């Protein structure tokens, strides 16, 4: 079989930077010293940036900071336990971390352990890739009742995130749950509530979660969207999976599947939405088998108005919704119809979007919840085109909390290209030497802050896998920070 | 052998995040000649689900891990999707702080 010719990536169109060519900056002679980079955040965004920087510059030295003991961000704490194939990318990220020019610093938190200012003094390039650890709020009455959580909190809980283990969730006294939102995270949480615990018990789900799910009395989950099936934000793979979930009857109001001309236009212009809509239409065919003791109901065109309290005034007992409709055209507007209804429930999971958190000395667009940037170069404010020398963002902090793991590869390419351009113009450092890792280590040691190396993580990883093997799980996640640190910080063999 | 495997064996930069388990779209390739595209077995629902999310999707896009080499495909050329950037139309370069 002849070697197949692969066309090189199409050249970037419309590029006007002078002297631009593919292989500009490769030798350390050009730069005269190592390029010291600090990436904050060890999820897909951080790792793809690190990987591409190491490939682009043989003289790069990349340190990756992570506030948790374990790396990999949402791959570890976001991807659902019953989606192990999606986590395989960890193998690649591990290879990047094992590069001798790359160092992992686990248990180091930007803001608490080291300031942004300190990082910028010690590195030529700082890339913030710490994602979005907060949530959009509905801003409606009853949002803080007990039994109301963001989907992120529930996901952290079942994925064994150290900050999620104490979630005060009660599944024993609840028969019905309402999930607000119809994206993939909404489907994830609905699916984990409805999947048989015996299927979950052979995944890497956190032990406290599968234990709670075994005694869960939840039999019905509503997944509620403000708009219709044509606008649903979930994607085909996830929808197909949940529609085929064993033992679960799917309920959809046929009237919601009617389409207007505007809907058909939208469907024609989007392959993703068309395939999702087709799945909703076919969904009746997914539920032919008998013996279904659970129900998943998709509710469309309903916007939450308030969350209702039970008689004790403390727990949630239902959701008050307004019927909506789409009006006008190009673009259509969502309006309330003045008609209302209620759904009874004992658990509400809000899946309406994540939000990033600002840190001191970092320009931040509070409205959009991102750092204002110009192809990854941090802008000094959202009102100016001036950028901060040597400071970049990648991933959700740059783009907002959308996309999949692979989206970060494309995003990282854009950021690394910006870094490359700036390095070539000696914009980043004016050829000044900086301490790099040595500087960071000295800051941490002054605070007596111990960090977990990648070898330390590998020890933690081995321990989790050994504990899991005993139970027929790929791993048993170590959820307690102290236990994780004890293993990760243990004295290494010299 | 899949095109993803072939790429890796020949040091071609084709990402394969999920290592061929139909859980990502990073090995997305574009079949340059429609004649070869038509010779390929139609994508499964699962492959189409991943193609939905691929960057720079075209009419002749496939996942590299699902295209298996066979003699009839001799001479087939595959392109990697362009990573495009939206530069400012006037070529404005922001001043660093």
UniProtKB/TrEMBL annotation, chain B:
Its cofactor is [2Fe-2S] cluster. One of its GO terms (cellular component) is mitochondrion. This is 2Fe-2S ferredoxin-type domain-containing protein. Pfam families: Fer2. GO terms for biological process: electron transport chain; P450-containing electron transport chain. It comes from the Eukaryota. It comes from Selaginella moellendorffii. Residues 1-84 form the 2Fe-2S ferredoxin-type domain. Keywords: 2Fe-2S, Iron, Iron-sulfur, Metal-binding. One of its GO terms (molecular function) is 2 iron, 2 sulfur cluster binding. The keyword Phosphoprotein does not apply. SUPFAM superfamilies: 2Fe-2S ferredoxin-like. CDD domains: fer2.
């Amino acid at each position: 079989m002849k070697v197949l010719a692969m066309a090189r990536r199409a050249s970037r169109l419309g590029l006007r930077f002078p002297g631009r060519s593919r292989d500009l900056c490769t030798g350390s002679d050009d730069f005269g010293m190592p390029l010291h980079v600090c990436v904050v955040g060890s999820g897909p965004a951080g790792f793809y940036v690190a990987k591409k920087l190491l490939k682009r510059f043989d003289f790069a030295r990349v340190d990756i900071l992570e506030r948790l003991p374990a790396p990999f961000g949402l791959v570890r704490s976001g991807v659902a336990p019953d989606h192990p194939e999606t986590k395989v990318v960890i193998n690649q990220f591990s290879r990047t971390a094992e590069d001798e020019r790359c160092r992992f610093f686990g248990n180091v938190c930007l803001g608490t352990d080291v300031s942004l200012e300190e990082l910028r003094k010690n590195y030529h390039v700082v890339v913030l890739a710490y994602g979005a650890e907060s949530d959009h709020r509905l801003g409606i009455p009853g949002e803080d009742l007990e039994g109301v959580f963001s989907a992120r909190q529930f996901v952290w809980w079942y994925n064994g995130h150290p900050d999620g283990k104490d979630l005060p969730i009660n599944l024993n006294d609840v028969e019905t749950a309402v999930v607000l939102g119809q994206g993939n995270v909404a489907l994830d949480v609905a699916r984990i509530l409805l999947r048989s615990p015996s299927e979950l018990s052979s995944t890497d789900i956190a032990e406290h979660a599968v234990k709670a799910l075994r005694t869960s009395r939840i039999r019905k989950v509503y997944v509620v969207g403000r708009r219709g099936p044509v606008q649903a934000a979930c994607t085909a793979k996830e929808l197909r999976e949940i529609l085929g979930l064993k033992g679960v009857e799917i309920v959809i109001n046929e009237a919601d599947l009617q389409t207007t001309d505007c809907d058909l236009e939208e469907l024609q212009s989007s392959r993703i939405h068309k395939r999702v809509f087709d799945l909703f239409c076919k969904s009746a065919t997914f539920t032919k088998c008998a013996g279904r003791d659970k129900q998943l109901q998709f509710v469309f065109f309903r916007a939450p108005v308030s969350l209702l309290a039970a008689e004790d005034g403390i727990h949630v007992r239902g959701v008050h919704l307004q019927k909506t409709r789409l009006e006008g055209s190009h673009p259509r507007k969502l309006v309330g119809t003045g008609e209302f209804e209620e759904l009874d429930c004992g658990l509400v999971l809000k899946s309406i979007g994540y939000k990033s958190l600002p840190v001191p000395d970092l320009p931040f667009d509070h409205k959009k919840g991102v750092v204002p940037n110009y192809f990854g170069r941090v802008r000094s404010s959202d009102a100016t085109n001036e950028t901060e020398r040597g400071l970049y963002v990648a991933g959700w902090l740059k783009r907002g909390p959308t996309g999949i793991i692979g989206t970060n590869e494309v995003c990282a390419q854009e950021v690394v290209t910006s870094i490359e351009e700036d390095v070539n113009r000696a914009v980043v450092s004016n050829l000044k030497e900086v301490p790099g890792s040595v500087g960071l280590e000295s800051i941490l040691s002054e605070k007596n802050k111990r960090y977990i190396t990648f070898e330390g993580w590998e020890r933690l990883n081995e321990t989790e896998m050994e504990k899991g093997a005993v139970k027929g799980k790929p791993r048993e996640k170590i959820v307690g920070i102290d236990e994780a640190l004890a293993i990760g910080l243990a004295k290494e063999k010299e | 052998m899949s095109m993803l495997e072939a790429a890796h064996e020949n040091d071609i930069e084709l990402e394969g995040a999920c290592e061929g388990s139909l859980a990502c779209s990073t090995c997305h390739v574009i079949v340059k000649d429609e004649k070869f595209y038509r010779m390929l077995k139609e994508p499964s629902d699962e492959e189409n689900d991943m193609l939905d999310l691929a960057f720079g999707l075209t009419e002749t896009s496939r996942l590299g891990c699902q295209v298996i080499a066979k003699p009839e495909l001799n001479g087939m050329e595959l392109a990697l999707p362009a990573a495009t950037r939206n530069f400012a139309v006037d070529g404005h370069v922001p001043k660093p702080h």
